[in-house]
Amino acid sequence: MAFRAFYALPAENFSTSTGQHTNAVHGFTSMLINLIRDQKPTHIAVAFDVSDDTTFRKAEYSEYKSGRNATPAEFQGQIELIDKVMKAWGIRTIHMPGHEADDILATLAAQGDAAGFEVLLVSGDRDTFQLINDNVSVLYPKQGVSNIPRMDAAAVEEKYFVPPSRYPDLAALVGESADNLPGVPGVGPKTAAKWIAQYNGLNGILEHLDSIGGKAGAALRENIESVKRNRRLNRLLTDLELPVTLDDLEEPRPDNQAVEDLFDTLEFRTLRPRLFALYADDTKGGEPESIDVPEYSTPTTAAELSSVFEAGAQGRLAVTVQMVPGRIGDDAAGIAVVGEKGSAWIDLLALDAQAEGVLARWLQDPEAPKVMHGFKDALKALRNRGLGLEGVVDDTSISGYLIQPDRRSYELSELAQHHLKIHVESAAAATGQLELDLSGDADGAAAASHVHQAAVVLALSKHFERELAERKASALLTTLELPVSRVLADMEMAGIAVDMEGINGQLADLAKVIDLAQEQAFAAIGHEVNLGSPKQLQTVLFDELGLPKTKKIKSGYTTDAASLKALLEKTGHEFLVQLMAHRESSKLAQMLETLKKSVAEDGRIHTTYAQNVAATGRISSNNPNLQNIPVRSEEGRRVRSIFVVSDGYECLLSADYSQIEMRIMAHLSGDPGLIAAYQEGEDLHRFVGARIFNVAPAEVTSAMRSKVKAMSYGLAYGLTSFGLSKQLEISVDEARTLMKDYFDRFGAVRDYLRGVVEQARIDGYTATMEGRRRYLPDLTSTNRQSRELAERIALNSPIQGSAADIIKRAMLGVAAELAAQNLKSRMLLQVHDELVLEVAHGEREAVEQLVAQQMGSAATLKVPLDVQIGVGTSWHDAGH
């Protein structure tokens, strides 16, 4: 069934960010959820095959199940993951060395039948049909794992012309190709069924061999030993000594936390609520408890508001902000405040000037501690209403991330369920996105919902306070992430100006390129074809042109970008040249169209930054994503020219770190060679190349330098000699030699890379220079693929995570210094290791100096942090 799930879902659409394929796990889990929902079993077990080489069937017949295709690489490790899901779910799994899963099912069926159970077997193996009787049925998949009808005795007889008890006799005569058990040549199910009925089964047939005439009878006599062997091998065993009893299989229930953790690792989102919904009415597991909405007041006067804030002065107050769409971003419409000594719903539309002044002073009081969920969004909404916000000591969407950086979602509802087993009515309400009546009715749904949210936030913050302390992450929250949220809010509200004429001009140019590439692609093959259709491209490339086959996929052979690029390099075919040009230009045009649609009424693009998406700590950008604009091609870099300086400012300034990850590698490893190269201002890759290839630095060719650069960066990502050989298009032996020579000359790097993984295996996590932890339980997994993925993460996370922390410290330093010098210049964008600022007239020299100083001093390393700065009227022109 796992194999069926694997082939039912495309592997390319189901993999984690670490590269682990999950289509079989996802499909199998989804199937089982549906089966339990529909069939409502009281006892459940999952049986697994063991290696074919250990079974008694293989021992008798060495060709048993041979000839099958090799297990796809994408399937590797997924059986173990299914086993883990079952364990978290509370479902017993059974493995029996020397026997197959169907023998386990057969034994369970016999036990269940004898105990008076109705037994449902779920299997794609027709051998299980022999077990069918009045109490035992087989759910046999017709297609994938979604269409699984029931096979009872009548269904077997209708399809195979024999009752279930005689099905093994029929299979012995006809054979079973899936098991590599050849049948009698020329004998099909109808002939076999006729003999079985006439002679009362296979034993009767064997007794009357000489009575069966014709070619079929002759073929039977010639292959009689194969038939006997087939019958011995297809008999399922019903008397195994299983490691479980039927009572052990009763009423399995999920361990919510184990399911949450595992589904986070597997990056499953849709399966989680479906699985928990199975147990929604069961107090033993599944759905968490709900909490009551606290009693709350509805203050409208200055005196009433003051009493609310005075009552909460002894501790933290949780705050949620209701937002309504504004011209750019959202405006605040109401505020819920919940503390230990009372709760309130403040309708901003109902406050007079004096009352709003009391609220504004409390919101801006840094000594009044507040906890929130979605600090950055609330900050922007309040600013749009003319209100400030200080004193925020926790944002549970960020503290939850610091505790578990590999979660897929930090919505309040999911965090509350996972950590507190508390049910939150509306996930959307957690961030204030409610489409509710804003008539000012304080007893309405908006008030109750937001007070409820705030109560959950307060409880969650208390829980996180302890967990952050245990992980030594409290300072990361208060001195780094929360201040960065404020800076990001400034950047999002500022946005960046866009040259609409420039966008339209580039789109027009790309349209010409796309049309020409399409025309020339058609000319290369002599007819038109849909260049966006994988199926039509497969026909053209592999049938008409006869080009070498790419990777085999379910629908034929892949036509993804990487495969076609390799095919182009191999063949140089003109159709591929034009196809790739068409694809690249179409991709850029689509990107420009997205950017064009994102321009707000003020003529600027306001991207949204997230601090809790990338597990390494990197800031991400979306709506639109400004971090995926290509920079390796001139056409891609040209897209940056549409981002321009706005009126009232002199220029854009771009500043980024040079080779920051390699500098962190030099610092963490302490390698004297790398440190010397950076301290002396050498070209690192030329310096390293000279030592590896034993030549003078001036004699290092561009090809040598490229090899060294690819390897230097690759080592931090766990690059293997095989991976390096593919990347550089050299032999594995040459790649292995290159890596050996590298480590011979830079031994401290080798020692560091080995040590960081071993230490992570001991600690259970890796940490950045600032102490940002990433827990990696798979470092001790018995699954080789999962373990190796975790090892690669352990190598990379301290380096990439430290780089993320450094750029955040730099952002805080730049923002603080701009304010300290009372400058009008402002930060607009953060893209990986780069900051983009808009520089006011007359401030260029001061801004260049302070940016270089703040970025260069954002961390103390054994090597200098080199900052490169460029200026221009557009982002493209400011490049360097």
Q: Can you walk me through this structure?
A:
- With 880 residues, this protein is α+β, with helices and mostly antiparallel strands.
- It has four domains: 2-249, Rossmann fold (3-Layer(aba) Sandwich); 289-494, 2-Layer Sandwich (Nucleotidyltransferase, domain 5), CATH 3.30.420.10; 496-605, Taq DNA Polymerase, Chain T, domain 4 (Up-down Bundle), CATH 1.20.1060.10; 661-794, DNA polymerase, domain 1, CATH 1.10.150.20.
- It contains 35 helices and 27 strands.
- The chain has a five-stranded mixed sheet with strand order 11-10-9-12-13.
- Helix 16 (375-384) links the parallel strand 12 and strand 13.
- It is globular.
- Mean pLDDT is 88; it is low at 283-287 and 426-443.
List keywords for this structure.
880 residues; alpha+beta; Nucleotidyltransferase, domain 5; Taq DNA Polymerase, Chain T, domain 4; five-stranded mixed beta sheet; 27 strands
Strand content: 5-15%
> How many whole angstroms does the radius of gyration measure?
33 Å
CATH superfamily of the largest domain: 5'-nuclease
Mean pLDDT: 88
CATH class of the largest domain: Alpha Beta
| Level-2 CATH architecture of the largest domain | 3-Layer(aba) Sandwich
Number of helices: 35
- Report low-confidence residues grouped into runs of 5 or more: 283-287, 426-443
Briefly summarize what is shown.
This protein is 49% helix and 12% strand. The protein is of the alpha+beta class and 880 residues long. It has a five-stranded mixed beta sheet.
